[in-house]
Amino acid sequence: MLQEVKQMIRKEITLEWRQKFAFNGVLLYLVSTVFVCYLSFDRLIDVPTWNALYWIILMFASINAVLKSFLQERDGRLLYYYTLVKPQSIINAKIVYNALLMSALGIAGLVVFIGFMGNPVKNIGLFLVNMLLGVTGFSAVLSMVSAIASKARNNFTLMAVLSFPLILPLLLVLIRVSSDAIHGATVVEALPKLLVILLLSVITLVLSNVLFPYIWKE
């Protein structure tokens, strides 16, 4: 199954390389949103607001990036995949690819955010570790929700409604850890919260592998 996942990830990267407008569109959304925040606050922004704004912007950018995961797949192509690979390979490849995509967006967003809004983060290493764990959890949740929403007609609305309550617990922990990083906490001090983030991501990943085959058969 590992070989199948690698091939599916390669397919996703190839399609993204041919259709660069997808990534560029989300990146443009990210930069323009940060720029609007910069014009609105004019750098007069406190640390909690800086922290919350970063994660809210990244969350909505992630939803926009992952929305197309299954919505762009046509029925004929899905049937073709069904004859070639296991459903677990497909969902795992989507999760890994979306995690890589959102990691790039998260790092780019952080650079842009620091450029416009300043850098209050004292422990950038912890902040980056927290961000990478966070986008992995986002990817696991949103990829599964995208698969569910692709079976309905009102795809975007359904995805927004389903994803927000699932992401919210993870988002709250991420904001707390990044707040610790801003105030200079070490990785050891934030380790319990990081383990909670990791546990939430693993639970979502396991549930995706269990539930996706049933969705795949529909």
Short description:
Helices cover 84% and strands 0% of the residues. The chain has helices spanning 2-18, 21-41, 47-66, 68-71, 75-84, 87-117, 124-149, 155-182, 191-217.
Q: What value does the Rg take, in angstroms?
A: 18 Å
Calculate the terminal CA-CA distance, rounded to whole Å: 22 Å
Number of DSSP helical runs: 9
Instruction: Please tally the β strands and state the result.
Output: 0
Order of helices and strands: HHHHHHHHH
| Unreliable spans | none
| Estimated helix fraction | over 70%
Give the strand content. under 5%
The oligomeric status of these chains comes to single chain
Biggest sheet statistics: none
Please characterize this protein's 3D structure.
- The structure is a single chain.
- The chain is mostly helical and 218 residues long.
- The chain has one domain.
- Helix content is 84%, strand content 0%.
- α3 (47-66) runs antiparallel to α8.
- The two termini are 22 Å apart.
- The mean pLDDT is 80.
Task: Describe the SSE topology.
Layout: H1 2-18, H2 21-41, H3 47-66, H4 68-71, H5 75-84, H6 87-117, H7 124-149, H8 155-182, H9 191-217
Helix pairs in contact: 1-6, 2-3, 2-6, 3-6, 3-7, 3-8, 6-7, 6-9, 7-8, 7-9, 8-9
Descriptive terms for the model:
218 residues; mainly alpha; 0% strand; globular
